[in-house]
UniProtKB/TrEMBL annotation, chain A:
One of its GO terms (molecular function) is sigma factor antagonist activity. The chain crosses the membrane at residues 87-106. It comes from Zeaxanthinibacter enoshimensis. Keywords: Coiled coil, Membrane, Transmembrane, Transmembrane helix. The keyword Membrane applies. This is Anti-sigma-K factor rskA. GO terms for biological process: regulation of translation. Residues 97-242 form the Anti-sigma K factor RskA C-terminal domain.
Automatic annotation (TrEMBL), chain B:
Keywords: DNA-binding, Sigma factor, Transcription, Transcription regulation. The keyword Cell division does not apply. One of its GO terms (molecular function) is sigma factor activity. Belongs to the sigma-70 factor family. ECF subfamily. Pfam families: Sigma70_r2, Sigma70_r4. Residues 24-89, 128-172 form the RNA polymerase sigma-70 region domain. NCBIfam families: sigma70-ECF. The keyword DNA-binding applies. This is RNA polymerase sigma factor.
Amino acid sequence: MKEKIRLFLETDLLESYLLGNTTTEETLQVERYIAMYPEVRETYNELQSNLEAYAKMHAIKAPEGLKARILQKIKAQDAGRRKFRRFAIAASISAVMFAASAYFFYNQNLNLHQENAIVNTKIQNLEADMKQQLEDVRNQFIVLNNPQTRKVSIKGNKKAKDLKALAYINPVKKLSYINVQNLPQLPENQCYQMWAEVNGEMLNLGVIESADDKEKLRALPYAEDAVSYITIEPQGGNLTPTVQNIVANISY
Amino acid sequence: MSTLLEKHIVELLQERNDKAISLLYEHYGDTLYGVAHKVVRDEEMAQDVVQESFVKIWKKADSYDASKAKLFTWLFRITRNTAIDKLRSVNTKNDKEIQMDVSDVYNLGVHSIRPDLMDVRENLDKIESKYQIVLDALFFQGMTQQEASDELDIPLGTIKSRLKIGLRELKKLYGTSLALIIVVFSTF
């Protein structure tokens, strides 16, 4: 071990390291020796003291003004750096703000597009709905205003004595309507449902809401010798009419 | 140099307080100027070197590691390397006019020191020039003993013994100045 240290000290590597003349590899080696061996550390510290002492002997009174120049240079450097830093901060803040607003507007644009699509569909639906209703009203008018239209008064059988309805049937235009004016109150788990037997086929015309507008005309499918029924069915309607629960029928 | 002051300066440096530079200059300015002058042998160039070195010291403050080197060692390395770089850049500029060998960058010996600079160097005179030459080779030129032996045409053994005596003389000198400081301080 002693031999190893002696050999190391003989290489002058420590002296080169002292002056900062070693390569990265040599530096690592020297630092390892300094850390590991007290003798090397001691030699290094002594070299440092000697260097300082010897260098101090070479001190020359530096010219007046050199200190001021150095301090000025350093202040200028720092100001430059600070200015750059301030600029960098400002730049990053505006970059972040730009990114945020870009994202915000992109999002808003996306939302507006979606809203636009929704509104468009709504308008289309409304238009279709209005056309349908207009068509309906026109047909109703044709039926009601036509001298060939028969008006049939319908009364409920004994299961629904208070049921009153009017049917308008026009065989020429092949249109028919029904206006349910009064429906007796039903228990909550039951409802009235309309049916029509057209060409031997039973059609479900839907549940009649008791809250329905009394002026409302329901279209009936028209056919020669068609029969419509009103039945009492469980709440929500049935798939096929319950024959024993027929409360009214209209043949036209 | 008191380690307490060194510590204080290092702390200020790492806090990036420019007071550190003021203190560094007050305590090491003349020495570093002397070091720069020793390498470049020109007053104006030496001033530039010191100025550039201080800027480097300020910029590299974070890289100073007190566990690896004394503050002065670090300052010396920066100043000496700055001086060598300066000299090299000047030499490359002048290369076409004067062919200068890199090994001629340093003129060995102390004969070129101007008389008006000598007063602050009283102590230096107390070391015989034959020892100074070897010390210069070690501390300023960064030569290995073998290189010094080749360069100076002095046997390696003589280099070794002169270095040993030179260092002993040096220690004697800064030992006494240190003792003197202690005496001066204790009288107050």
